[in-house]
Amino acid sequence: MTGSGFSGAQGPPDYEARLLNAVRELARELGRNGDDLQRLGPDSSLERDFGLDSLGRVELLARVQRDFGIQLDGEVFLTVETPHDLIGKMKAAAGVELIAAAEAAETADTGQERAPEDIVTLTGLIDWHASAHGNRVYITLYEDGDRSRDITFRQLKDEAMAVASGLLAHDLAQGERVAIMLPTSREFFAAFYGTLFAGGVPVPLYPPARPSQLEDHVRRIVGIVANSGAVLLVADSRTMLVGRLLRPQCRGLRAILTAGELSTHGIAPLLPRVKTDDIAFLQYTSGSTGNPKGVVLTHANLIANLRAMQYASGVTSSDIFVSWLPLYHDMGLIGACMGSLYAGFRLILFSPLSFLARPSRWLWTIHRHRATVSAAPNFAYEMCASRMQDSEIEGMDLGSWRLAYNGAEPVSPDTIERFADRFSHYGFNRNAMTPVYGLAESSVGLAFPPLGRGPLFDRVDRSGLTLNGIARPAAEDDPLALRVVCCGKALPGHEIRIVNASGMPIPARNVGRVQFKGPSSTSGYFGNSRANEGLFNGDWVNTGDLGYLAAGELYLTGREKDLIIRAGRNIYPQELEEAVSRISGIRKGGVAVFPASDPGSGTERLVVLAETRREVGAERGRIISDINNLAVDLLGMPADDVVLAPPRTVLKTSSGKVRRSACRQMYESGALIRKQHSVWRQVARLASGSAIAEAGQLLGGCAGWLWSAWAWAVFAAIVPCAWIFIVTAPGLGLRRLIAKAGARLALALAGLTPQVSGLRPFSVGGPSVVVSNHASYLDSLVLTAVLPSRFTFVAKQELLKNPFAAIPLRRLSCAFVERFDSARREEDTRVLEARARSGESLVFFAEGTFRRLPGLLPFRLGAFAVAARCSIPVVPVALTGTRTLLRGDDMWPHFSRLGVAAGGALSAEGNDWQAALKLRDKSRSWILDHAGEPDIAS
Fold it and tell me: From CA 489, how far away is CA 480, in angstroms rounded?
């Protein structure tokens, strides 16, 4: 070995980087994903990680000699395992010292606080953080009282990768959904991001919080799991009962597992490729049990929204964010947790149940950590302003808090003022209060106000708004003026408009439907075509909210579905709800105002539902009178019906919003005030329903078991006979005809005759190379049944170790190739070329192996190099159904429809490396389009 390529002023590290770039470029040509390659380093395997087979190594040798001026023996490329090994050989040839890139990567500190702009997936963000500063704390998590645990970026990735391996071991296919019903915990993040690394789609669910509402909760969860088609549920010991109750009612749910159980499978050898347009997760919005709406959010949607929110808020990696928001809600999961991944700020996290038990804990946590950012719905600020005792907050300092986001539900100007007035004495800056607007359909954020301006209210004429839908500024002395909170302007790259009922834009200060568009916009609701019909208006997305624009900023007046039209007036329920909540004896937040049908008059009735513990008749009469007086003052009319109900009657979403439509349905059905069943009765009712569903599944399973037993009997009867005839028959042609007849008979008797299309290329004489995907041990059987008997199968050398397989394969003149010994593999390739030139037609499984999970693996170059060098055509063949029929090493078959589709013959445009690459890419592209499985080459 000679050469001097490492001399000169550039220095060794530059050459090392050049070598890695050369290896990555070659790997890209071989089909590896560029984003994944950037994570590979000098100690990564040339074959397993970079995907360089023997032909790829030969090409790398040529490029090293050309680009570096170093002459290396060909044997070097057959023995080195990693770029680091190769650097050592080059170092010896050049006579210089190189610093190992792996050591440099471990000790280097990029100094970069924010992730690079070219990272376009959530998994890419985790990879970058773990690599750039793995020991930096991502989350400080309070799980039990005041005791906290830190989660570093490296720990986050390691724990997520462990769960990903477990999910793949449970046959999670790319794009399949995984329901996650976990509280705020370390396990949630491992399960959520582990699902992403495994190529799945997380579906966050809220764990049951109230045993008294267990039945309603399970029914809602069943609707979500069924709609999403989740195949696995990740739960913990506290929610296992709920999981077991819903599993029989969700036929697609294969298993219920804990994060701990999933983390015992080591590290998966091959993870699917995660792309920017992949679904990152399904965010289920607050809908009825029968019509759940799962918002589809891709990695691209989320990255775009995180980038826009960071720009609008000015948040940096030096900020500290405190959050108690639920992780199954977009504000907590995306705004806080994913925001930390993108911007790099420190996240302090604790459970929403801890906040509800002691709201002051939120503010004390901000005080303790000198947090600069936090967010909450309006009700949380109201609880702090009106319910906390002075003794709870004595000594508190909120001076560090510069961004207090208020969103996720209607923002009350009264709440803002009460909170600012009370906590200004504890260092809170009124201008920190930041009302914002967002919704899951826009990932999370849509409108933010200018930084540091503080809350802005618009005083409008009440009659103009309710009678004409026009937000005219009110006179200064107007005592009935209505205050509307400003939510700011659309995020950068996004647009907001107001339209009328016909979908046409209307002028400023006219109330109408709020629509938006931008890169954060969802593509629709998962598996819910009915809901999607009303979601879009061309390129614009309907929010379902009503509002108006003034000076380019958004003001919300209410939800379209909650609008009450009474005596020609538009009544927005929020203001009356807030006023009623302040009546003595009424539970704060326990009020719902909604319309109800009046069959007699054909109009809508105004109904006020209010929770109270007062049972004395005189007290209840006083409350009803106070409610009607408020209604007359605010709306000009009394309520048509006032319903006083016990606590927890008002139905709410998981994030605390009043479910007015659901309350209306219950009111009109007469079921609004009913005695709540005891927990044991709810469990019994759910268990009986689950038992009935489970019995139906058992009957279906019995039918499947009977077919599987029949299929085994067929194969047990035919295979030994075919084996004997193949071994003893005198001629190769006869032996291959026997194999073909046996394969066809076995498939026919088992009811598995494949649907075949496109076999015309095989009617033409002359040799050809068939290239097929590989999904099951039965692939060879299926191809033997449908291909002409003149084809020679190329098999792996390991089969020769099994005499039962080796004897008939040799009698059928199969060709054998070595998969692991590079030197031997080169020799086998030359033998295949000789057989092709002699007129033989060959069958290759270009992936070289198969796995249990669906997906097309990278193609090896051997088949295409043989075809290019011998100038014979390649015919791509796509097999479907065989993976389901016999998955992985499972020897118990499952009935499946089989298909064999052949493409047109493809010819190489030369006989060199590039010609083989193009031939491979064309063949693989055709098979990918027809195999019905995802592309997992990475």
Answer: 27
- Residues 197, 268, single domain; the answer is yes
923: tokens are 């063949």
- Cβ density class 586-618: b for 16+ within 10 Å, e for less: bbbbbbbbbbbeeeeeeebbbbbbbbbeeeeee
Q: Please give the pLDDT value at position 90.
A: 74
Beta carbons of 624 and 657 less than 8 angstroms apart: no
CA torsion angle 298 299 301 305 (round to 10) = 150
CATH of the domain at 526: 2.30.38.10
The verdict on residue 379 lying in a domain is: no
DSSP state of 279: E
In a domain, residue 161? The reply is yes
DSSP string, 24-36: HHHHHHTT--HHH
Across the chain, mean pLDDT equals 83
pLDDT, tens only, 692-731: 656 665 665 677 788 888 888 988 899 889 899 988 999 8
Checking if the pLDDT of 197 tops 90, the result is: yes
Q: What CATH number should be reported for the domain holding residue 583?
A: 3.30.300.30
CA of residue 647 relative to chain centroid, distance: 37
The pLDDT tens digits of the residues spanning 860-904 come to 888 898 999 999 999 999 999 998 888 877 778 888 899 999 988
Among candidates 312, 332, 311, which has minimal Cα distance to 322?
Answer: 332
Whole-number Å distance between alpha carbons of 161 and 293: 29
Provide the 3-class DSSP secondary structure of residue 631. helix
Number of domains into which the chain is organized: 5
159 and 55 belong to one structural domain: no
Using CA atoms of 48, 51, 56, 62 in order, give the dihedral in degrees to the nearest 10.
-90
In the prediction, which pLDDT does 673 show?
65
Domain holding 586, by residue range, is 566-669
Residue type, 302: L
Backbone dihedral angles phi then psi of residue 756, each to the nearest 5 degrees: -110, 140
**Is the pLDDT confidence value at 7 over 70?**
no
Q: Answer yes or no: are the C-beta atoms of 893 and 885 closer than 8 Å.
A: yes
CA angle 522, 506, 492 (to 5 degrees): 40
| Mean pLDDT, range 152-168, rounded to an integer | 93
